[in-house]
Amino acid sequence: MQNFQTIGIYGAGAWGLALALAARRAGRRVIVVGRGEAAMAELAASRVGAKLPNARLPDDIVVSASPEALEACDALLIVTPAQALSASLDVLGALTKPLILCAKGIERDTHRFLSDIAAELAPGAPIACLSGPSFAHDVAAGLPTAVTLAARDEKLAAALCHALHGPALRLYASSDVRGVEIGGAAKNVLAIACGVADGLSLGASAKAALVARGFAELSRFGEAYGARPETLMGLSGLGDLVLTCTSPQSRNFAYGMALGRGEPTAHMPLAEGVHTARALCALAVRRGVEMPIAQAVVDVLEGRIGPKEAVRALLARPSRKEA
């Protein structure tokens, strides 16, 4: 089994710092690189990130603004937003060490999956994806969390899981990269729909129906793009969907709540589902996959209909056999 003693983290937001803490608890040496000399100097001095104020980085975690600092790592977690992956890989340059993609999304303009972007821009690097039901604050606090890590090479996936497995973070290895990234991307869009329902005060029954029918959409899409059913039923599919669709801690759910309430959203933190929604539906059309909930989210986001009209349109769809 490969030995990954030093873990690099590219991205110093809440999720990047939470994963840095998890890797350190797993007994690894950790290097965190983020953007901005001043911001990284402040983080190195205070050991507390602005987006994760209740968690302190141990003094032995290296903090830097220089991508060159990552040359010492044995594996690299890229923890920047999905829409920034191409730019991140351009900054990092030629890479040959394993890359673990930690964002959840589909590139908005090109409709490419993140693993395909990484394979193109870092052709010498083995690619893995990390996804599952997890909030940064929970992982940072050392609360029990389980996620999936997928790489096409099963031995690599197992070795990376072993390297990151700690007292509270349990990792399950998979070779279904496409299934893991589809679950992570699609659930963000569906979480916006559940947030809208909550913002409209439609009740718990409506939210449960959206989760169930949303999972049916996710499953149809996954099948069309080669995901394994057991992956979609697992942590990175159904597990992440349930978490993200039921908690205001989810940025996507919170964004949907604001839409449902008619509140402004321009000031809100990044919600990956906003950028992924159109790409997800475009890919669905390409393979003839019906995704009415995801399409309703797109229609609301693009201002073609309001949240109440979207709900009415979904309820007005003809009755059919459940599938």
Largest sheet: 8 strands, mixed
Helix content: 40-55%
CATH topology of the largest domain: Rossmann fold
Q: Which percent range describes the beta-strand content? A: 5-15%
Give the overall pLDDT as a whole number. 95
Helical stretch tally: 14
Outline the low-pLDDT stretches: none
- Give the strand line-up of the largest sheet: 5-2-1-6-7-8-9-10
CATH architecture verdict of the largest domain: 3-Layer(aba) Sandwich
> Would you report the number of β strands?
10
CATH superfamily of the largest domain: NAD(P)-binding Rossmann-like Domain
Shape: globular
Gyration radius (Cα, Å) is: 19 Å
Structural class: alpha/beta
Report how far apart the termini are.
Answer: 42 Å
Order of helices and strands: EHEHEEEEHEHEHEHEHHHHHHHH
Question: How many structural domains?
Answer: 2
CATH class of the largest domain: Alpha Beta
Name a few traits of the molecule.
alpha/beta; 323 residues; Rossmann fold; two-stranded antiparallel sheet; 14% strand; eight-stranded mixed sheet; N-(1-d-carboxylethyl)-l-norvaline Dehydrogenase, domain 2
List the topology elements:
Elements: E1 6-10, H1 14-25, E2 29-33, H2 37-46, E3 48-49, E4 52-56, E5 62-64, E6 75-78, H3 85-92, E7 99-101, H4 114-121, E8 127-131, H5 136-140, E9 145-151, H6 154-164, E10 169-174, H7 177-199, H8 204-224, H9 229-232, H10 235-244, H11 251-261, H12 272-286, H13 292-301, H14 307-315
Parallel strand pairs: 1-2, 1-6, 2-5, 6-7, 7-8, 9-10
Antiparallel strand pairs: 3-4, 8-9
Helix pairs in contact: 3-4, 7-8, 7-10, 7-11, 7-12, 7-13, 12-13, 13-14
